[in-house]
Amino acid sequence: MQLLKKLLDFYINGSIHVAFAVFALVQMTFHFFHIPYDNPMAMFAFLGTIVGYNFVKYDALARSKKLTMSRQLKAIVLLSVLAFAGTIYYFFLLKRQTQLLAFGFLLLTLLYTLPFFPKLGNARNWAGVKIYIVAFCWAGITLFLPIFNADLPLSQDVFLKFFQRFLLVIILIMIFEIIDLKNDDLSLKTVPQRLGVYKTKMLNLFLLIPFYCLEFFKSDFQIIQLWINLILIAVIALFTVFSSPKRSDYYTSFWVESIPVFWWILVLAFA
User: Fold this and answer.
1) What is the CATH number of domain 1-152?
2) Using one digit for the tens of pLDDT, what is the confidence trace for 105-134?
3) Residue 242: closest CA among 178, 180, 199
4) Distance (Å, rounded) from C-alpha 172 to C-alpha 156?
């Protein structure tokens, strides 16, 4: 049992789980826009997520010299190095316009992580900004990159899907912020810090409405997708209602981050 816990912690702390969530959303882009499976695009997103998330999580600790090189952390460093090599390999297999867009998202990640403006710190610590940068990157990487690499036009459906995913990530992040309320610095001014837990939950439940209704505006929306999304928002609503600062970190780092994968499984099973 102890070994299983260590493997699960490595799987989560090494950002493999969140990378699968990104991978699932890329697969859904392939599905919704009838794009044949594009392995370089899918693997670039998967491996790039491991590199990006591990860089964001451990960079500040490394620079502050508060990082203890445990056995697990050494394994995560090795994983990140291998993932970085894979990311570079698949980057050069992408089309030029996709590479340029990916480079733009890299700059956003660096802005989020590194203190380019000494007086302001990094964007991760800008009050109220973090949530929008993360949502924009998730929606853009999982939607715009596959669309650009497939040479598809930026149609109305593409932007509708972008806003839908942007809302989804905002909603999931607010569940994270409720769980992290006990640890977050007050200067971050997260949504639960400003509104309180109850109002944050109400806001989350309200945002599920436009997330669901955007599906009606698609040019080729299908009834089955409405049912799939209804199941999805019911699950997200339950996670929102039962979220609490007293919950274990696994509540978000494993279960909530599984929601994009769950959505993809529903699409594969019924759409």
Assistant:
1) 1.10.357
2) 888 877 766 554 455 555 555 556 778 888
3) 178
4) 25
